[in-house]
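Hi R.,

As promised on Friday, here is the backbone we talked about, encoded as structure tokens. Could you run it through your design pipeline when you get a chance and send me back a sequence?
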């Protein structure tokens, strides 16, 4: 235990991490923390669905029918019809044959990315012998989500990291490693940067070099595209080489993760991916709520319209003030700060003024590239956005561009 005591002392004396922050209500988008009301500009609940009465009503149907939890693994007696119904809807939304759902988005990336190269392992124990040796290699954007980076590491396969969205560099690596089974992995919407991966060009590369393209559309699903179908719908770009990943914990306001791909792939994953077969999955009430969320997103486009109206209102006004946002393509619009301590201080100052914005720091992003990740929400009122804008206006000389340096 001595090691942990030392680390703990260091953290306390260096004030290196954000203060403990406990809450008694969830952002809708305002919430209560330590008795104080704050407006959140950092919630993933993009459409405010998590507390929507229709969602709660659906979840209650699931709760009454099945109880609070599914204590069985899906491989061993826990494979409820409602999960299959949800997976069929997710596959249809992503224009794929099949989908497989896991307990969280994080677990989905860990489980699927680490399993894809090992698909033959269990079959080998039963006597399967491949005609050929397949060696796998990952090609990963440097700004990919930490769950992707960890999933790739868990696979034990070689990885090359290409510069953020630098497709020339990606192509040079693909060319150099022709002999491998190539798996390109990218965030669809970059979670800490807010920009969108250049999907059509990436699909072209994947098809040209016969690579798999795994796209983590955690922040695009429910947000991008005419029906909220995500990045592929946004670009109207689909490919047999693509594996779509998404989360159910953001625009869908619930819990879970999934991939959508060909049925022969999901069939294999059911038996080989431990994060599917050796753990519990989402409680059934969540599946009920998510099905309702999907229907609401599809049939009530005004919800997403409100999100995008708020997004453009914020972008227009904040850029007029002279702020430089890392991206203006999506509801994630980070203000780059750089120094971790400055970023934390700014987040605390905003907190004192009744605004919550996450200070995003290493290991979520590279060291010294911390940022205040502003995220707008369909439920923000103009008054709430104006309040943030007026505080940012008064902070202009604290948050300048070029970036604030450590004091
Ligand atoms: C890009 C990305 N992928 C995966 C995840 C993990 O999703 P979940 O919170 O559903 O586990 C996140 C969560 O923030 C994310 O931003």
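Update: got your reply. Pasting your designed sequence below so it's all in one thread:
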């Amino acid at each position: 235990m001595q090691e942990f005591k030392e680390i703990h002392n260091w953290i306390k004396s260096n004030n290196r991490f954000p203060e403990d922050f406990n809450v008694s209500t969830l952002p809708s988008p305002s919430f209560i923390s330590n008795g104080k009301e704050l407006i959140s500009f950092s919630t993933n609940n993009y459409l405010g669905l998590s507390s929507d009465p229709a969602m709660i009503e659906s979840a209650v149907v699931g709760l009454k029918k099945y109880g609070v939890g599914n204590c069985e693994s899906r491989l061993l007696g826990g494979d409820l019809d409602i999960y299959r119904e949800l997976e069929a809807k997710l596959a249809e939304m992503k224009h794929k044959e099949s989908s497989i759902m896991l307990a969280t988005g994080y677990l989905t990336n860990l489980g699927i990315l680490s399993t894809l190269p090992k698909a033959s392992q269990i079959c080998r124990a039963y006597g399967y012998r491949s005609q050929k040796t397949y060696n796998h290699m990952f090609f990963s954007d440097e700004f990919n989500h930490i769950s992707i980076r960890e999933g790739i590491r868990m696979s034990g396969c070689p990885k090359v990291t290409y510069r953020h969205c630098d497709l020339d560099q990606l192509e040079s690596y693909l060319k150099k490693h022709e002999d491998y089974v190539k798996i390109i992995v990218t965030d669809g919407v970059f979670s800490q940067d807010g920009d969108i991966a250049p999907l059509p060009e990436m699909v072209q590369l994947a098809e040209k070099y016969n690579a798999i393209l795994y796209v983590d559309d955690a922040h695009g699903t429910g947000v991008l595209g005419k029906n909220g179908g995500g990045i592929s719908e946004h670009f109207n770009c689909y490919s047999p080489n693509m594996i779509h990943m998404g989360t159910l914990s953001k625009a869908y306001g619930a819990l879970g993760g999934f991939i959508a791909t060909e049925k022969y792939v999901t069939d294999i994953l059911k038996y080989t991916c431990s994060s599917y077969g050796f753990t519990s999955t989402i409680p059934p009430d969540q599946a009920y709520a998510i099905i309702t969320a999907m229907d609401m997103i599809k049939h009530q486009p005004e919800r997403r319209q409100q999100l995008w109206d708020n997004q453009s209102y914020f972008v227009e006004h904040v850029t007029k003030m002279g702020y430089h946002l890392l991206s203006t393509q999506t509801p994630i619009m980070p203000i780059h700060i750089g120094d971790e301590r400055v970023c934390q201080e700014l987040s605390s100052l905003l907190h004192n003024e009744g605004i919550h914005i996450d200070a995003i720091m290493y290991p979520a992003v590279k060291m010294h590239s911390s940022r205040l990740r502003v995220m707008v929400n369909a439920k923000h009122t103009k008054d709430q956005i104006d309040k943030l804008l007026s505080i940012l206006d008064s902070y202009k000389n604290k948050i300048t561009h070029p970036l604030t340096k450590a004091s």
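One thing I noticed while checking it: The chain has two domains: 27-51+301-394, 69-298.

Thanks again,
M.
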